[in-house]
Structures are given as structure tokens and as C-alpha cells.
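Researcher: We're teaching a course module on how sequence relates to structure. For the next exercise, students receive a sequence and then see the predicted structure as C-alpha cells, so they can try to spot secondary structure elements on their own. Here is the exercise chain.
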Amino acid sequence: MSDRLPPLTALRAFDAAARHMSFQKAAEEINVTPAALSFQIKSLEEHLGQPVFRRLNRAVELTEVGRALSPGARDGFATLAAAWSSARRLTDTSSITVTAGPAFTAKWLAPKMFAFAQAHPEIELRFSATLRLLDFDRDDVDVAIRFGTGDDSGLFSKSIIREWVTPMATPELARTLKKPEDLRQVTLLHQDDVAFLDPPIGWTAWFKAAGLGAPQSGGPRFSQADHALDSALTGAGVVIGRPSLTARDLKEGRLVMPFDLSLTTEAHYRLVCPVGAQNRPHIRAFLDWIEGEVAEFPALDQGRRFVSAAEVKEMSGGS
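Model: And here is the predicted structure for the students to work with:
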């Protein structure tokens, strides 16, 4: 038996049919007629010298030989598709796909898209808002804006935003908060999207840093920080806000920070991309633009009294 591979079209037809277990659906996927797909699979079977499908009444099933071939064919086409996508990205200088968390995209990045478009009309900016850690080799992504303390080894990575948290509320609600103890009389809004951080930076840590003991139980919980902020903007409660998500609301007066005590965290925002990609002109333009835009954040540090979340954890015996 020859080790020569069969035609790629025959393997492609087999892969589609093996995934769908239907010649009709496979033909629709690869945009050929069922008869043409059947011919391709017959060609593969002749090349192999063995059937890869059992033809049943209105159904097909893989033979033992077909089951042996199917995983490799599936993985091979997935690898080929990923490689093709990577190669096309290297030739595309007119668009950039950026991935970032949903809250950061909604509250900071997306509102600035128009400014980038004005500065660089020749570049189309696309967003992929997800908390899933996308893979540059597998996913169609050029640049990631990541938050946390993750490992970026093997990638170009640059820290852009130092993060901290402090209570934030509407000006009307903030007028009722004369001292930190007054927080016990209002609704606290909780965010679960930062629950992965250790040391934590939620209400419990802030109350400990303020010498208030444990916060009151209860209060709405939100899986996404932007949802908690939207609730705070209606006056529904006080949020433990992060400047990376609230800079615009603070600047325009929709939210205020009634107390100077702020918790810092080792978690930070980084610009991440494959090594070398940062030197491609259109990606370099985006990175430089982002670095210019984040220059607004240090001004929010003015008048703040910072305590690190790690110090708070030590004060409470490491718990």
C-alpha cells in the first residue's frame, strides 16, 4: 500500500461527513452536491483500499478504518485553518482585532473607538469582548488587553494601568456618606468578576482596611463589573469601583469617591501580543494610541490614601 496521501478534496469531504454523520449536511458545509461529495469519499476509499463508511438506510456510520482516520483528519484541518488564519493576519494591515474583558470593553475601550478611528481612518478596529483567555495561534486575535497577574511568558507584554478600588456612588447618595461607618446604612453592590484575585479587593477587604470589621451581609451580586456600575449609576447602591472602568463617569461627575481610602492590587492591565507583532505598523499605531489614552489614569490617584490588599490580608492573619 502506498503512503502517498489522497487528494486534499477527498480528505476534506471525509472530514465533513465524519463530523456530521450525514452526506447531505457535509455537502452543504463544503458547498458541493451530495453526489460530488459521495464521489470524493469513494475516491478516498479506493485510494485507501478500504471503506471508511458503512452506508445504511438513510444513515452512515464510520468503519473501524474510518474511526482511525477521523480524529487526525479533523485535527489536521483545524491546524491548517489556524495556520492559514495566522498567515492572512500577517498580510492584513488594514484591521486589528482586540480582545478584552466585557466590562473594560463596554466602559472604557468602546467609547474611545471613535477617537481611534479619527486618528487612524486607515485601520479598522474590531473587538472581541470575552473573559476567556484567547489563544493567538488559534483565535483570530491580534492584541489582548488582559487584567490580572497571569503569566505572559513567550509574549510581548506591557503593563498599562495600575488598578485600585474604592467606594463609588452617585453624588446624591454620596452626600449621605459623611464617614466610612455610614456605609452600613446603604446597599452595597458586589462584583464576582474579581473573586479570582488573591489577595481579594472586595468589600470585605476594604472594610477591614478602614477598621470597620466585616461589612453587612446581603446586597445584589453581579457577575460582570459593568452591570454593577450601571446599578450604581441609578443610585441603587454603592459599588467598590475600579478607575479602569469608572474614569469617564468620575470625570463627568456621574460617580464620586466619598472616601480617600483605596485598596491597591498586584493585578493590572497589560497589552499583550505575539513577540514581534508589536513592531508591525498598524499594531504599533494601536499600542501607541492606547498608551496615550491611559495617561488619564494617574490623575485619579491624586488625594488617594493607598493600602495594599496584601497588607490587609496580613492584618487579618492571612485569611
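Model: If you want an answer key for the exercise: The CA atoms of residues 105 and 225 lie 11 Å apart. The longest strand covers residues 155-168.
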